[in-house]
Amino acid sequence: MSVPIGKRFGLWTLSFLVVANMIGAGIFTTSGFTLAALGEPKVVLLAWLVGGIIAICGALSYGLLIERMPLSGGEYLFLSRAAHPLLGFIAGWISLLAGFSGAIAFAALALEAYIPEILPPRWLASLVVILGALIHGFRIQLGAKVQNITVGLKLGMLVIFLIVSLMSFFRDQWICPHQSLITSPSKGALSSFAKALIWISLSYSGFNAAVYVASEAKSSRIVALSLVIGTALVTLLYLLLNAAFVLAPPLHVTSGNADIAAQAAAWIGGPSFAQFTRVIIVFALLTSVLSMMMAGPRVYSKMAADGVLPSVFEIKNTRAWPAVFLQMILALLLILIGSLQTLLSYLGLTLSLSAALSVSCLFFKKKSKPITGLQIIAPLIFVTATLINAIFLVIENPLNAIGTIITVLIGSVAYAALYRAKSS
To answer: What is the pLDDT along the chain (424 residues), one digit of tens a residue?
Structure first.
């Protein structure tokens, strides 16, 4: 018999989980490429604001979903219950391969890239994943406490960055609030803005992190509230950080530069401040890995409880290590065979489509409580914007869709085999 999981996670633990999932490598690198594409710092900030609004709409939408289906499992749960078990299984499969394993591998490899080579390639990334498994695999409460402490430290360091940047602003050291790389509007301005939103959307992914541990939350209302609080906090941080990144240094220093955060920090506070910023980035990536090692196994636990994965992966009150170690093994395999660039395009399209399909469950008839009135606005904005971004990503490079198509096909075959095995 299954031992019930305790209602152990409160508002701050869940909000910190959302923050940790969202703040990773993207915020510290994306704006360099976005600035090169858009050519105007203020338009870059507008793109981050639009991305934040879309993410908040996603958080509100997932809050509506979790109030209707207050259990762990995320997209797997929503689609299994509100649409069809096949769609739920494919969403769970996507979580297994891309949503968590791929994202963990990406964050760990990015962390390794920011640290001097003290170990052979991929070793440090692997050790970080193993550390996350050890923290979250054996003592669930310990993992939550470590998560809260590390996220608190990360937020503290980001506040220090913002204070130093603000002091620099008041000393009139920011030189490019009025600079621009363009002299007239481009005919492809809309396309460039859409492309920038695709890059930015990856930095906002993770707004839904708390739904994966909903069964262990004190209430579904707390889960829904934590999604909005965490996403709104990250949106505010992103806007403030990007103001420093794109307005403080000259454009020729940061435009197209993947290391825009450190370059801006060097301009604001010199080499020592740039080094401090690199420490923030490493710490942000570490907490991102730890948070996903906490959230991901809850999806596999729900799949095990439903009988679509072996029962050993079901998380009991005092035992989480089988699901956590499954997560660890898959992430380590992707670290060994993947690269940052290939993982980035694969994750962007696959996860966005899975999220859009899950939010679409709110419009399905097969649900206990239909959305009414103004509730429909946030889901409609999120689904529409996500699908537009996905279309632009495929148009930009049709090869981006290959990984997503292969993942869906393998998931469909696995479901068919499982269904046939149960029927026989």
So the answer is: 343 455 678 888 899 889 988 887 778 878 888 888 887 888 899 999 999 999 999 999 999 999 888 887 888 888 888 888 888 888 888 887 777 887 888 888 888 877 877 888 889 999 999 988 888 766 666 666 777 787 888 888 889 999 998 888 877 667 665 555 554 445 557 777 877 887 788 789 889 988 988 888 888 899 999 999 999 999 999 999 998 888 887 777 677 766 788 888 888 888 999 899 888 888 888 888 888 888 888 888 888 888 888 888 887 766 678 888 888 998 999 888 866 555 666 666 788 888 899 999 888 765 556 677 788 999 999 999 989 888 887 887 787 788 788 888 988 888 888 877 777 6
The domains of the chain are located at 11-416
Structure tokens at 175: 């030189």
- Determine the angle formed by the axes of helices 340-359 and 400-423, rounding to 10 degrees: 60
Cα separation of 133 and 310, whole Å?
Answer: 19
Around Cβ 238, how many Cβ atoms within 10 Å?
26
The H-assigned helical ranges of 171-259 are: 189-204, 220-247, 251-254
Residue by residue, what is the 3-state secondary structure of 129-167? HHHHHHHHHCCHHHHHHHHHHHHHHHHHHHHHHHHHHHH
Q: Strand pairing partners for 9?
A: 217
Residue 217 sits at φ, ψ, to 5 deg, of -90, 160
Instruction: Tell me how far CA of residue 420 lies from CA of 308, 361, 412, 415, 416, in angstroms.
Output: 12, 26, 12, 9, 6
CA distance 399 to 6: 44
Tokens 């269904």 belong to which residue? 419
Q: Hey, which CATH number is domain 11-416, 3.30.43.10, 1.20.1740.10, 3.30.2310.20, 3.90.1010.10?
A: 1.20.1740.10
For the CA atoms of 316, 321, 327, 332, the dihedral, rounded to the nearest 10 degrees, stands at 180
SS3 2: coil
- Give the pTM: 0.84
For the chain, the C-alpha Rg in angstroms (whole number) is 21
Please state the φ and ψ torsions of residue 404, each to the nearest 5 degrees. Answer: -65, -45
**Cβ–Cβ < 8 Å for 249, 264:** yes
CB neighbours of residue 146 within 10 Å: 17
